[in-house]
Amino acid sequence: MFDRAGYAEAVSTHVPPGWPAQVHPPGAERFEDTALTWLLELVPPEYRRYGVLRRYPVALARMARHHVHASVEAARTGFRSARVELAGAVPPHGIESVLETYRQEGARLVALLQSVDLVESALRDRETAP
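Request: output the structure for the sequence above.
Response:
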Protein backbone atom coordinates (compact mmCIF):
# COMPACT_ATOMS: atom_id res chain seq x y z
CA MET A 1 0.00 0.00 0.00
CA PHE A 2 1.22 3.53 -0.79
CA ASP A 3 0.49 6.83 0.90
CA ARG A 4 -0.36 10.07 -0.94
CA ALA A 5 3.29 10.85 -1.64
CA GLY A 6 3.80 7.45 -3.24
CA TYR A 7 5.90 5.98 -0.43
CA ALA A 8 5.35 2.45 0.70
CA GLU A 9 3.59 2.57 4.07
CA ALA A 10 6.03 0.03 5.51
CA VAL A 11 8.92 2.45 4.94
CA SER A 12 9.56 4.94 7.67
CA THR A 13 9.23 8.45 6.27
CA HIS A 14 11.19 9.95 9.15
CA VAL A 15 14.07 11.96 7.78
CA PRO A 16 16.47 14.24 9.61
CA PRO A 17 15.89 17.99 9.76
CA GLY A 18 17.15 19.57 6.58
CA TRP A 19 16.23 16.62 4.38
CA PRO A 20 15.15 18.00 0.96
CA ALA A 21 11.41 17.71 0.32
CA GLN A 22 12.06 16.68 -3.29
CA VAL A 23 13.93 13.52 -2.25
CA HIS A 24 12.13 10.42 -1.02
CA PRO A 25 13.43 9.06 2.30
CA PRO A 26 16.20 6.47 2.28
CA GLY A 27 14.63 3.05 1.94
CA ALA A 28 11.71 4.34 -0.10
CA GLU A 29 11.22 2.75 -3.49
CA ARG A 30 12.33 5.78 -5.52
CA PHE A 31 14.89 7.23 -3.12
CA GLU A 32 17.83 6.97 -5.51
CA ASP A 33 15.85 8.27 -8.51
CA THR A 34 14.57 11.32 -6.63
CA ALA A 35 18.02 11.97 -5.14
CA LEU A 36 19.57 11.83 -8.62
CA THR A 37 16.98 14.23 -10.06
CA TRP A 38 17.41 16.67 -7.17
CA LEU A 39 21.21 16.57 -7.27
CA LEU A 40 21.24 17.21 -11.02
CA GLU A 41 19.31 20.43 -10.36
CA LEU A 42 22.13 21.67 -8.14
CA VAL A 43 25.04 21.28 -10.54
CA PRO A 44 25.73 22.98 -13.88
CA PRO A 45 23.53 21.61 -16.69
CA GLU A 46 26.58 20.23 -18.50
CA TYR A 47 26.94 17.58 -15.78
CA ARG A 48 23.90 15.83 -17.25
CA ARG A 49 26.06 14.71 -20.19
CA TYR A 50 28.16 12.38 -18.05
CA GLY A 51 26.64 8.95 -17.72
CA VAL A 52 28.98 8.05 -14.89
CA LEU A 53 27.13 10.52 -12.65
CA ARG A 54 23.81 8.79 -13.35
CA ARG A 55 25.31 5.35 -12.78
CA TYR A 56 26.90 6.38 -9.49
CA PRO A 57 24.65 8.89 -7.70
CA VAL A 58 27.09 9.04 -4.78
CA ALA A 59 29.68 10.48 -7.20
CA LEU A 60 27.13 13.07 -8.32
CA ALA A 61 26.38 13.89 -4.67
CA ARG A 62 30.08 14.45 -4.04
CA MET A 63 30.32 16.78 -7.04
CA ALA A 64 27.16 18.62 -5.96
CA ARG A 65 28.60 19.03 -2.45
CA HIS A 66 31.75 20.62 -3.88
CA HIS A 67 29.74 22.83 -6.23
CA VAL A 68 27.42 24.10 -3.48
CA HIS A 69 30.37 24.56 -1.10
CA ALA A 70 32.05 26.75 -3.74
CA SER A 71 28.84 28.80 -3.98
CA VAL A 72 28.84 29.27 -0.19
CA GLU A 73 32.44 30.49 -0.33
CA ALA A 74 31.66 32.79 -3.28
CA ALA A 75 28.75 34.33 -1.37
CA ARG A 76 30.98 34.88 1.66
CA THR A 77 33.66 36.52 -0.47
CA GLY A 78 31.06 38.67 -2.21
CA PHE A 79 29.62 39.76 1.12
CA ARG A 80 33.04 40.71 2.51
CA SER A 81 34.04 42.72 -0.56
CA ALA A 82 30.73 44.30 -1.61
CA ARG A 83 31.15 47.62 0.21
CA VAL A 84 34.57 48.30 -1.29
CA GLU A 85 33.87 46.97 -4.78
CA LEU A 86 30.51 48.71 -5.13
CA ALA A 87 31.45 52.03 -3.49
CA GLY A 88 30.77 54.87 -5.91
CA ALA A 89 28.89 52.63 -8.33
CA VAL A 90 25.92 51.81 -6.08
CA PRO A 91 24.37 54.17 -3.49
CA PRO A 92 24.73 53.21 0.19
CA HIS A 93 21.11 51.99 0.48
CA GLY A 94 21.69 49.81 -2.59
CA ILE A 95 24.82 48.33 -1.04
CA GLU A 96 22.83 47.51 2.11
CA SER A 97 20.28 45.74 -0.07
CA VAL A 98 23.07 43.79 -1.78
CA LEU A 99 24.45 42.77 1.62
CA GLU A 100 20.99 41.63 2.72
CA THR A 101 20.73 39.58 -0.48
CA TYR A 102 24.05 37.95 0.38
CA ARG A 103 22.82 37.23 3.92
CA GLN A 104 19.65 35.57 2.67
CA GLU A 105 21.33 33.68 -0.15
CA GLY A 106 24.19 32.65 2.10
CA ALA A 107 21.77 31.15 4.63
CA ARG A 108 19.93 29.32 1.83
CA LEU A 109 23.20 27.95 0.43
CA VAL A 110 24.42 26.77 3.84
CA ALA A 111 21.11 24.94 4.39
CA LEU A 112 21.37 23.48 0.89
CA LEU A 113 24.89 22.25 1.61
CA GLN A 114 23.61 20.53 4.74
CA SER A 115 20.85 18.88 2.69
CA VAL A 116 23.37 17.66 0.12
CA ASP A 117 25.48 16.23 2.95
CA LEU A 118 22.44 14.31 4.26
CA VAL A 119 21.59 12.88 0.85
CA GLU A 120 25.20 11.99 0.13
CA SER A 121 25.47 10.21 3.47
CA ALA A 122 22.27 8.25 2.75
CA LEU A 123 23.57 7.28 -0.69
CA ARG A 124 26.86 6.14 0.84
CA ASP A 125 24.98 4.10 3.45
CA ARG A 126 23.00 2.46 0.67
CA GLU A 127 26.22 1.61 -1.19
CA THR A 128 27.71 -0.05 1.88
CA ALA A 129 24.53 -1.88 2.98
CA PRO A 130 24.72 -5.67 2.61
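Confidence is low (pLDDT under 50) at residues 6-11.
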